[in-house]
């Protein structure tokens, strides 16, 4: 009965996925009308890269996964930071899940040909575990890489603020200081700043509006605060050199605190294997004594 139930569930799931692929669900009418009435949003500054090896394998399942609202809003922001398209990410999730499903079956087939096959429960549990792990593994990787890029961007932003402050002290204007400071260094963070400033120049918008949009897309709050300060300077002529110095110092202090917290967490994780080893040693020593006591009872 249990095996028949599992086989029935698997066949039903496969038929449902096939039906969703052949007849994709139609979106509701209300969101489409809202899209027609909505004001046009500016083009995103962050661009997505090319597809990976899994795009071709999992592409047929992208629409089915998108119908479930995947990925979420937070994960979409992380994908934008990493520079990965949503369709490529969903295709990779589907490809890894399919690999996890069929890999134990392939191993079981090889073992059956060799004459030493396992019971069906072990390949089934392995397929389910690997499929679930493969489905969520790209999400974990994207979140980790996005957080690393945000940390790198905050470090670069601190140096960028100091350069702007030096240029303002030398008599440069706000727009000129921002462009010159962005063109000094190299790296992913400063490249994004240069792209935002170039986008503002080509679209004839203010640089601080482009920086604010970039801060929202990256999820970096200090950049949006910088855009607000520069906007105040550009529209009302306020003096921002002192405020930029304060922001740079606060950003360095925050990053130093985060670095110290990560170092302390790593130190605590290093002590876990030692504790486990000591506990195993104590069990190894105390087991004979406990066994003798129990036999004496």
How far apart are the termini? Answer: 45 Å
Sheet with most strands: none
Radius of gyration: 28 Å
Mean pLDDT, to the nearest integer, reads 80
Helix proportion: over 70%
Unreliable residue runs: none
Task: Note the topology.
Blueprint: H1 2-22, H2 29-37, H3 55-58, H4 62-67, H5 73-82, H6 86-114, H7 121-169, H8 174-182, H9 188-203, H10 207-218, H11 221-236, H12 241-296
Structural notes for this entry:
The chain is an all-alpha fold and 297 residues long. It has a domain of 104 residues. 80% of the residues lie in helices and 0% in strands. The longest helix has 56 residues. The radius of gyration is 28 Å and the shape is flat. The chain starts with a helix and ends with a helix. The model has no long low-confidence stretch (mean pLDDT 80).
What are the defining features of this structure?
297 residues; mainly alpha; 12 helices; flat
């Amino acid at each position: 009965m249990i095996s028949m139930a599992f086989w029935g569930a698997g066949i039903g799931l496969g038929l449902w996925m096939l039906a969703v692929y052949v007849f994709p669900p139609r979106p509701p009418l209300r969101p489409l009308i809202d899209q027609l009435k909505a004001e046009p949003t500016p083009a995103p500054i962050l661009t997505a890269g090319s597809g990976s090896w899994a795009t071709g394998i999992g592409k047929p399942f992208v629409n089915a996964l998108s119908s479930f609202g995947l990925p979420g809003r937070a994960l979409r922001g992380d994908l934008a930071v990493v520079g990965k398209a949503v369709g490529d990410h969903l295709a990779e999730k589907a490809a890894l899940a399919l690999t996890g499903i069929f890999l134990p079956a392939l191993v079981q087939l090889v073992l059956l040909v060799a004459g030493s096959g396992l019971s069906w429960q072990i390949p089934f549990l392995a397929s389910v575990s690997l499929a679930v792990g493969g489905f969520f593994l790209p999400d974990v990787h994207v979140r980790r890489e996005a957080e690393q890029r945000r940390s790198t961007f905050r470090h670069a932003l601190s140096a960028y603020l100091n350069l702007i402050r030096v240029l303002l002290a030398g008599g440069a204007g706000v727009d000129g200081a921002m462009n010159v400071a962005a063109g000094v260094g190299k790296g992913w963070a400063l490249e994004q700043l240069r792209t935002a400033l170039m986008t503002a120049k080509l679209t004839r918008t203010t640089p601080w509006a482009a920086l604010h949009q970039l801060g929202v897309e990256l999820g970096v709050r200090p950049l949006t605060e910088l855009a607000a300060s520069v906007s105040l300077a550009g529209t009302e002529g306020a003096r921002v050199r002192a405020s930029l110095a304060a922001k740079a110092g606060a950003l360095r202090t925050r990053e130093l605190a985060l670095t110290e917290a990560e170092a302390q967490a790593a130190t605590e994780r290093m002590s876990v294997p030692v504790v486990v080893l000591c506990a195993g040693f104590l069990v190894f020593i105390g087991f004979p004594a406990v066994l003798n006591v129990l036999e004496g009872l």
